[in-house]
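Exercise 4. Each item below gives a protein and its sequence. For each, produce the structure-token representation.

Item: Biotin-dependent carboxyltransferase (Nonomuraea terrae).
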Amino acid sequence: MIEVVAPGPYATVQDLGRPGLAHLGVPCSGAADAPSLRLANRLVGNPEGLAGVELTFGMARLRFHDAAWVALAGAPLASGADMGAPFWVPAGAELRLGPPVWGLRTYLAVRGGIEVEPVLGSRSTDSLSGLGPAPLRPGTLLPVGRPLGEISADLAPPPGPRPAVLRILPGPRDDWFAPGAPAGLCARPYTVTQDSNRVGVRLRGPEVVRARRGELPSEGMVLGAVQVPPSGQPIVFLADHPPTGGYPVIGVVRAADVPVAAQLRPGDEVRFTLRG
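Answer:
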């Protein structure tokens, strides 16, 4: 059992989500930066899909009622523990984690995984629909499962920050925008606003001008969709995005770059590109 002494600004339990249920109106959810959760799990010998803790801006304090192997991946923390290598936390110890040096989201995996009650096949907290466990708060108790494998990796040096450039595929509704709008989207940087969350990265910058009035009938939305509301300020959809939406999508961020978007902080600058 792990006791949450302090969750930091925002912390949730996440696995790889609830894929395949969008036709029922259920968002996929899951880790916003899925490769980092997968890595943290591999470092402690877990299957990649086991649940861990997603920390936003770090600053958590966790008390381990039982000894455990733990690993951290994602945004590197300034203090508290080494990144990219499994480490031992003795029974009764309190793990104190600092803020990230860069990036936004850090993933904590414990050998055996976090075993809160699953909902629709996943232990993920969905901030949009409310499915899954509530966000962590002081006093939350997180049960830990039994180990399922051996620890075979001892070190995965954390990479530095990737350039804040998001490769996009134009469409499917680029015809709703003024000629040259996709190229215009890529011409100048945008700033991440403080309204961003697990649903999407909200941006402020050059207006994306529409060629049509009105709105579309609601249609399916995908991870990485760049949706443009009437304000002309784009939103990049993340893990908790709605299954449908009525604002036109000018492009879709390539899957390999979604983790880059998930690590953007408010105030960061980001660019789009049609290359690659």
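Check: The longest strand covers residues 68-74.
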